[in-house]
Amino acid sequence: MRKRNRVKVSTTLVVLLMGFSLVACGSSTPALQPSVNNTKETSPAPEQKPEESDAIEAEGILTGWADPHTVEIRVKDKAMSFQVGEDMQKLLDDFDDEDSVRFKYVEKEVDASTKQLVLTGITKIASEDGDKTGTVAGNIVTSDRAKTSELEVTVEGITEKRPVTLAQAKGYSLYIFEPMAFDAKDHELTMKIDPRYKVEIEKLPSDFNLDYLKMDAKEELSEVGEVKELTPEQLSNGPMKDARLFMMSQNGKKTQYFIVKELDENGFIFHIDAPVGEPSEGFLPMVYASVNSIMNE
Q: Where are the residues of the annotated region Disordered (predicted)?
């Protein structure tokens, strides 16, 4: 038993002596250890802020185009502008101004303080009456205005009051005279005896640019003849004295008008075709009285 213990102690001493020898005889380089870099260090990827948030759903009224890539939708009486890609532009060809819509959009960060709203989806909301729009005034009237009234009109130098009926399209209403028919779906007012006498009504977004509209008018009217713009002084004694823009052109067959009127911060364009003929005597006076009766709804 004592021999075994001696051997064990001797062996221990030998090991210790060898250890001291290695330290004494070795270089100054420390003993090799697992390098902290012998395993490739993977640092966590920096957190990336998403460029676009999740899609947001909302409902509103489609007001119209602010420019070729921006559409305006009125949400709870607040106008909002949305960027529109090419696919969405094609989809919106099937929509009319003042359509009730359900839509989706995302908020894209332009910089730290600016967000861009991008439209990603849109559908029409059917009205309670099945989106009925007829050519007679009573089909979709929901206005608080009287269904019938009288408007003053001057025809061939005679001023008189004539009966009118309320007509309503999406977003506005107006009174029309008996010889006229109103198509709410196409926003057209025409003479019953000759539909070539017509007015196309276009409701504008709240941020419309009058200079751009003037360029559009010149392009549109130049196909008929020389384009003329009436000054406020020339309009001051006439029925359209409060028009923001009054431009016209004519040839031997017809006179065409491009008139912009503003009402409660909303603009309207009246594209008027007045062919040369007998009905033209009463057509324009009735048109001016009707468009001056227009109200936002």
A: 31-54
